[in-house]
Amino acid sequence: MVVRRIGVVEDHASVVLGIEVMLADSPGLAVVTSATTVPELLAGRPDLDLVLLDLRLADGSSPFTNVEALRAAGLEVLVFTGAENPYMVRLAAKAGVLGIVRKSAPVDAVVEAIEAAAAGLPVVTTEWAAAIDGDPDLSEVGLSPRQQEVLALYASGEKADRVARLTGLSRETINDYVARIRAKYAAAGRPAATKVDLYMRAVEDGLLPMPERPA
């Protein structure tokens, strides 16, 4: 069995213990490390599949900076927070997290979100949707109609060969388009280094529909 390794950045020990209890019946998930700050976590050079990050930490750090640092270290992030500040939620969403889950959510919903994020999948919640819908500052990236078409197909899960067949372009051209799309998003301050990032950017810009949460 593949066990997904989880790290937690949280300055309340009781919350870390609560996460461990919630995951006790999920043999495929294990909390292997925790820290009160992102630099402390990264100092241990952790080999993790996912980091659970609180938005409001005692060190006063910015959610955007924290997510950027974790992503730069090759770590995916799921926000697990009780913070109600919409601005902080938007900062985290714009930095490229896999999703945002409230500490007040039902245990089953939290575990489901962690399982999905640990597998590298985006976690669709009302908080994430609200962060996108309520953000007036998402910078335009200026994609051409053709680039928008390629992004919508590629970010929806299609492989480059399939996108090439659907658009009548060569695979090399599709790869070039994707590289240019990533560069445009990076220049706009909305990085899209992974396919999940591209999916989120496509949703943010209305090129793909906001997926519905499972019932």
TrEMBL record:
InterPro entries the record matches: CheY-like_superfamily (IPR011006), Sig_transdc_resp-reg_C-effctor (IPR016032), Sig_transdc_resp-reg_receiver (IPR001789), Tscrpt_reg_LuxR_C (IPR000792), WalR-like (IPR039420), WH-like_DNA-bd_sf (IPR036388)
Organism per entry: Gordonia spumicola
Gene3D superfamilies: 3.40.50.2300, Winged helix-like DNA-binding domain superfamily/Winged helix DNA-binding domain (1.10.10.10)
Phylogenetic placement of the source organism: Bacteria, Bacillati, Actinomycetota, Actinomycetes, Mycobacteriales
Protein name: Response regulatory domain-containing protein
SUPFAM superfamilies in UniProt: C-terminal effector domain of the bipartite response regulators, CheY-like
Modified residues (4-aspartylphosphate): D54
GO molecular function, one term: DNA binding
Recorded superkingdom: Bacteria
GO biological process, alphabetically ordered: phosphorelay signal transduction system; regulation of DNA-templated transcription
Residue intervals of the Response regulatory domain: 5-118
Name of one Pfam family that matches: GerE
PANTHER family per record: NITRATE_NITRITE RESPONSE REGULATOR PROTEIN NARP (PTHR43214:SF41), TWO-COMPONENT RESPONSE REGULATOR (PTHR43214)
Keyword vocabulary terms for this entry: DNA-binding, Phosphoprotein, Transcription, Transcription regulation
